[in-house]
Please model this.
Amino acid sequence: MASSNNDDIAAVLHQILQNQQTFESNLNNLSTEMTNLRTRLAPPGFQPMGFDIPSQTYHTPSIKLELPRFDGSDPLGWIFKIKQFFEFHNIPEDQRLRMASFYMEGEALTWYQWMHSNGQLLSWPMFLHALK
Model:
């Protein structure tokens, strides 16, 4: 009876080892196929960095433009300039409100702080509407 149990255990171990070898072989084949796909699909000069998904990047033109500070005077003129600035630099809409606040000063900054602290400025479009 002990011999039968040993034979059963040996058979199970043999099957586990075969499964492991098959798994390793399949994994190596998959890795080779992934490398081949990356090579075929990557643009020239592309350097893969493992399996990480690259974060979205934004093209920033090489021309440096200064965004004028806003003190509360001529809001429509400043809105035009800041919209042009953001479009030129491809700034995502969800970052525009925060960036605009860095260019406010004086009465405009006081107004912005009050509006922000009272939940009146939740989005870029809301900010533009309130500023007008």
Notes: Residues 51-56 have pLDDT under 50 and may be disordered. Helices lie at 2-41, 75-88, 93-101, 106-117, 124-131.
